[in-house]
Amino acid sequence: MAGVWDRVTGTQPAPPVLLVVLVGVLALAVVAYRPVWLLARNAVTIAHEGGHGLVAVLTGRRLEGIRLHSDTSGLTVSRGRPTGLGMVLTAAAGYTAPSLLGLLGAWLLAAGHITALLWGATALLVVMLVMIRNVYGVLTVFLTGGAFLLVSWLTAPEVQSVFAYGAVWFLLLGGVRPVFELQNKRRRGGAPDSDVDQLHRLTNVPAVVWLLFFHVVTVCSLLGGGRWLLGL
Predict the structure, then answer these.
(1) Closest by CA position to 34, among listed 174, 136, 192, 162
(2) Cα dihedral 172, 88, 72, 191 sign
(3) How far is CA 108 from the centre of its chain?
(4) For 53-71, what is each residue's pLDDT tens digit?
(5) Nearest CA among 91, 97, 64 for reference residue 78
(6) What is the pLDDT of residue 14?
(7) 65 strand-pairing partners
(8) pLDDT value for 216
(9) Could you read off the pLDDT of 201-220 as tens digits, one per residue?
(10) What is the extent of the structural domain holding 147?
(11) How far apart are the first and last CA of the chain?
């Protein structure tokens, strides 16, 4: 048991900077190339809905369940006051969660805690799995968690390092695109009940201001996390 704990709390060497850059470029290609993005976006949806669920619990709401759909949309249902700070924070957590998780991951990697990141991500996915309420969601979270588990247990440290950096790059980059997608949908008259519209009803702050807030959080997280990953 002591050996396992030492692995989690210990540090591991970072890959060469050139490899970190190449992994980042690959993650950017995944986010930018639409056919691949449509599949990879499921991972961002997991983080998005997980963010709603986590903040709901932390603010004292009762989490009823989470659904993930094959079109990469999702739904998180929680019970509690329909207004107030808890509901506002819960609604605001979705679009910011992937980027903030990526920022946290970048901080862990900059500190050399590669194993801690992989095991922490696996634990979060296991907890989320319990709250999934549809078959597609269970399959998506199970496969994602399984990938983290297999890499952390069965692969060499070098592979674990590349996988961890790739996952964090993907969260940082992948957190930016959905906000632009939401902006484009709203410009065309779509997404009438999006998170920013819910936040507008809850706070009377214009939806465009919340959209700008999401842009600021995701872009700043990318810039800050990228600096950590590159050791700048």
Answers:
(1) 174
(2) negative
(3) 15
(4) 999 999 999 999 999 999 9
(5) 64
(6) 83
(7) 77
(8) 98
(9) 999 999 999 999 999 999 99
(10) 2-230
(11) 36
Rounded to 5°, angle at Cα 51 from 210 and 109: 105
Cα separation, 198 vs 131, in Å, equals 23
Is the pTM for the entire model greater than 0.90?
A: yes
The pLDDT assigned to 8 comes to: 58
Q: How far apart are CA 30 and CA 15, in angstroms?
A: 21
Residue at 80: amino acid letter: G
Q: How far apart are CA 15 and CA 22, in angstroms?
A: 11
State how far the Cα of 125 lies from the Cα of 88, in Å rounded to an integer: 24
Q: Which residues pair with 79 in a beta bridge?
A: 62
Query: What six digits make up the tokens of 42?
Result: 């499921």
Cα 215 to the chain's mean position, in Å?
Answer: 15
Closest to 119 measured CA to CA, from 167, 81, 189: 167
Q: Total domain count for the chain? A: 1
Those residues of the chain that have pLDDT short of 50 are 2, 6
Provide the token pair at 20.
Answer: 């970190």
